[in-house]
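Quick one:
INPUT:
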């Protein structure tokens, strides 16, 4: 009987934790959408497709999804120099946007879960705060 209660309690804990993280992700993505509209949409466009040979795509972006720390760093401090996105090389400049660590986390959660990207690992303010220039 104890095993049954323990199993039930464990199951409920897992469900609650997943639900809480999902809710946290949804809230972060909602805030991130507004940040994207204010700071990112001009270059990366409303659907994240970027401008070919000028601004890299965020939609279905292998760079974004495979280079989490570098992506956070680029948003937090700006990006300069060559990067390869979906097999194409971009050599441009993205100015630092002056976002807080929480805003960087929110926009990362939005862009890594939009336009064909899927990221179940929540980007947090704490994680962003540890990224140095």
């Amino acid at each position: 009987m104890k095993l049954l209660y323990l199993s039930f309690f464990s199951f409920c804990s897992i469900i609650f934790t997943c639900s809480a993280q999902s809710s946290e992700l949804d809230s972060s993505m909602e805030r991130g959408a507004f940040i994207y509209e204010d700071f990112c949409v001009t270059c990366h466009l409303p659907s994240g497709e970027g401008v070919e040979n000028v601004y890299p795509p965020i939609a279905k972006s292998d760079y974004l999804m495979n280079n989490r720390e570098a992506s956070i760093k680029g948003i937090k401090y700006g990006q300069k120099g060559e990067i390869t996105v979906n097999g194409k090389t971009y050599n441009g400049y993205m100015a630092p946007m002056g976002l807080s660590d929480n805003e960087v986390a929110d926009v990362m959660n939005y862009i890594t879960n939009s336009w064909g990207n899927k990221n179940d690992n929540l980007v947090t303010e704490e994680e962003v705060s540890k990224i140095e220039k």
